[in-house]
Specification:
82 residues, mainly alpha, rod-shaped
Length: 82
């Protein structure tokens, strides 16, 4: 879970940095809005990528746990029959 919390913190920090940078830049409102839209899309894509990676890791972890539980159950019942 530490990696997940770090990733969320990094994304929140990046968003805050982008917002601060865009709002303090000497650009017109139209340019600022375009920059915000561009960065928001970029961050959305990165967040989507992170979510997909987390889902994949979770699926692998669940499959591993199920496999271990099945192996443990099998071993337990084999020993019990002896």
């Amino acid at each position: 879970m530490t990696k997940g919390k770090f990733a969320i913190g990094a994304i929140v920090g990046a968003v805050a940095g982008v917002i601060a940078g865009v709002l303090t830049a000497p650009k017109s409102g139209k340019d600022t809005r375009a920059d915000i839209k561009s960065k928001a899309t970029e961050l959305k894509n990165e967040a989507t990528k992170q979510v997909e990676e987390t889902k994949e890791q979770s699926t692998k972890a669940v499959a591993d746990v199920k496999e271990r539980v099945e192996g443990a159950k099998k071993g337990f019942f084999e020993k019990k029959q002896d």
